[in-house]
Design brief:
The protein has 359 residues and is an alpha/beta fold. Helix content is 25%, strand content 27%.
């Protein structure tokens, strides 16, 4: 294979599955003719970063530089780049490449391409391992670069490149974006709070479904949800049975699907976007007798991601974030494991990630 020239980079990496990240020097390829290089300004911390750092999914390769909610400013473009120029605000989400020829790719769903390459922890075409956004700069094929609207603050826009598209895509794909529809959002965390914002912007009635009353005021008075249901309250569930056109389930903990299926109308759709570690029990009778559907969804394609961020710009949708310094990342990971964040940590990369001269 032809030797690829490289540029030095600096970031934070997990060296093993202990969950600890530390300073790390590495190299990125030189800017190719179709590549965009950009200075990373901010990077969100996704819950999947925590899973990958600890190898809880059994697929991690170390050293691992996490981060797939990456935003910054273009510093260099390749000779054949046509979509971007230096100084523009851009981002990279969960993908940096795909085969470009399979059915998924031709349909604009690169996220389902069997040969897709994720932003970190995957082998690239030059046999190097991809490194994510907990780093000072990124280089990526222009086909996987997202343009960030000028009116969106970059720090609060960063999580939309994962959390935003994760909830936006299934609502659009399954037709749950029509004004007047009734949409349920299960869980009010990093995914759920963005789901509420997009569903409201689409003109739907939104009900947040949670395990306790604790987040009722937050859901209704601050995020603008129309209603709030406690999933462990049989009376509340009974009163709302058969009222929802679709439900976006963002919960990654083990939970019962039966109450949620009961909330759906005939032909209603329950879309799973959370990733529980243990298999869930699937009640079949509601599916058979009422043609209800349970399905999954994973992020979205590049065109769809651009559509999502453009809609966010039009409606001023951002994530609710806690901006942190690079030296706080390990503490943030510990807090994230306890769900102690409202609702997304974002690293102030440009101002706080400084190269260690001793490395």
């Amino acid at each position: 294979m032809e030797k690829v020239h490289q540029k030095e980079a600096f970031g934070l990496a997990a060296k093993d599955n202990s969950g600890v990240l530390s300073p790390f020097r590495f190299t990125r390829r030189e800017t190719g003719e179709k590549d965009v290089r950009f200075k990373v300004l901010f990077c969100g911390i996704c819950h999947s970063d925590l899973h990958m750092v600890k190898n809880e999914w059994g697929m991690s390769t170390y050293p691992l530089v996490p981060g797939h909610e990456i935003v910054g400013v273009v510093t260099e473009v390749g000779a054949k780049v046509t979509k971007f120029k230096t100084g523009e605000k851009v981002g990279v989400g969960c993908l940096v490449s795909s085969c470009g020829s399979c059915d998924s790719c031709t349909e604009g769903m690169e996220n389902y391409c069997p040969k897709s390459i994720q932003t970190y922890g995957f082998k690239y075409y030059d046999d190097t391992i991809t490194y994510g956004g907990y780093s000072d700069h990124m280089v990526c094929d222009e086909g996987f670069i997202i343009r960030i609207p000028d009116n969106l603050p970059l720090d609060a826009a960063a999580p939309l490149l994962c959390a935003g598209i994760t909830v936006y895509s299934p609502m659009k794909y399954h037709g749950l974006d029509k004004p007047g529809m009734h949409i349920g959002v299960v869980g009010l965390g990093g995914l759920g709070h963005v789901g509420v914002k997009f569903a409201k912007a689409m003109g739907t009635k939104v009900t947040v479904i949670s395990t306790s009353e604790r987040k009722r005021d937050e859901a209704i008075n601050r995020l603008g949800a129309d209603a709030f249901l406690v999933s462990r309250d049989p009376k509340q569930i009974k009163d709302a049975m058969g009222t929802m056109d679709g439900i976006i389930d963002t919960v990654s903990a083990t939970h019962s699907l039966l109450p949620l299926l009961g909330l759906l109308k005939h032909k209603g759709k329950l879309v799973m976007v959370g990733a529980p570690e243990k298999p869930l029990e699937l009640p079949v009778m509601p599916l058979i007798f009422e043609r209800k559907m349970v399905m999954g969804s994973m992020i979205g394609g590049i065109k769809e991601t651009q559509e999502m961020i453009d809609m966010a710009g039009k409606h001023n949708i951002t994530a609710d974030i806690e901006l942190i310094s690079a030296d706080y990342v390990n503490t943030a990971m510990e807090r994230l494991e306890k769900a102690d964040v409202r609702y997304r940590f974002v690293i102030d990369v440009a101002n706080t990630l400084k190269p260690n001269p001793n490395l």
